[in-house]
Write a structure and sequence with these properties.
This protein is of the alpha+beta class and 326 residues long. It is 44% helix and 16% strand.
Length: 326
């Protein structure tokens, strides 16, 4: 019996576990995500994330560096810590898969998770309508309210996979532009915002699982969860699922909706009194957060489709706001 299979049996108390679907290979070949059918357990299926650190990495964009490797190693350690120490705080308003257990097997890591398809979230999308975006924004608002002022111990001090400290290689290749010149300042503004929460860190549409009726959503992939301003998640989400024209047309309505949901979530937690000050600060940081992600893209893949007219507009807005503060 394989060590992975034995681990699944130990965690789920099943008598047998069979891999029935290979869902995907992890980024750069760092393992696999599979669905297992169980026998002799109160669970029919589970999702198993098996992290294997390769001797040679195969990055899709050619970023095969020691920094890149160490970032990925830490990301899986962070995800394991997230499920162990933080995930129980999430409720149905920021639904995530239940974690049944984690285990290290030599150099490998195994995370056994709830099957969200079986739990009523079988739909995946690559783009969203405005109303569908709101479902995800409601999830983010509740997530950010849940983890407001919680210290990211064992997680990324600064959440997201693109924050400046983890991307020296990409920053070095970036052309010398006004954005590059203020990159450190942008990072400091986001890191030093008064209101800090935990950010999902990779809140793209592909990491959301929807119910059949598209009324409910759950989120997966917590490798880059950590401290930060909630606008990092919001800006990244909108860029992942809307066209540049939609981003511009719907910006005000979607931000209004997010902050309304955030206020509601803070009210439930008895801390509504801070919502106006929080909104005032975070609204001003929306373009800053967008510019921060744009900085990463300009070094990582300067031909990326997300480097569009709306991104340029957000960068200009961010640069102007920084000038006003100087």
């Amino acid at each position: 019996m394989s060590s992975i299979k034995q681990t699944i049996l130990n965690i789920t108390k099943a008598t047998n576990a069979e891999e029935i679907e290979h869902i995907q290979t992890l980024w750069s070949g760092y393992g696999n995500i599979s669905r297992y059918a169980l026998t002799g357990s109160n669970l029919n299926t589970v999702i198993v994330k098996n992290i294997i650190y390769p001797n040679q990495t195969n990055h899709p964009r050619g970023w095969n560096t020691a920094v890149s490797h160490q970032r990925k190693v830490k990301s899986y350690q962070v995800e394991t810590e997230w499920y162990k120490s933080f995930s129980d705080l999430c409720n149905d308003d920021c639904r995530i898969p239940k974690c049944y257990g984690t285990e290290n097997i030599g150099e490998e890591q195994v995370i056994v998770l709830e099957d969200l398809d079986a739990a009523g979230f079988p739909v995946r999308k690559s783009d969203l309508t405005k109303d569908e975006v709101k479902i995800c924004l409601k999830w983010l608002a509740n997530f950010h309210a849940t983890f407001l002022n919680i210290k990211p111990e064992g997680l990324w001090g600064s959440g997201t996979y693109w924050h400046l400290a983890t991307r020296p290689d990409e920053f070095a290749t970036m052309n010398d532009t006004p954005l590059k010149q203020v990159a450190s300042e942008i990072d400091e503004i986001l890191s030093n915002s008064k209101f800090q929460t935990l950010v999902h860190g990779d809140a793209k549409v592909a990491n959301f699982c929807f119910s059949e009726d598209m009324l409910n959503v759950a989120a997966v992939d917590f490798q880059y969860v950590g401290g930060g301003c909630g606008m990092k998640d919001v800006a990244y989400l909108l860029g992942s699922c809307l066209t540049e024209n939609e981003c511009e047309v719907y910006e005000s309505e979607l931000l209004d909706f997010y902050f309304l949901e955030l206020k509601s979530a803070l009210n439930i937690k008895g801390i509504e009194s801070i919502s106006n000050k929080l909104e005032q600060e975070w609204r001003a940081l929306y373009s800053i957060a967008w510019a921060d992600f744009t900085r990463f893209l300009m070094g990582w893949m300067p031909t990326h489709q997300k480097l569009n007219a709306y991104s340029k507009l957000m960068v200009e807005k961010a640069l102007n706001s920084i000038k006003k503060e100087q």
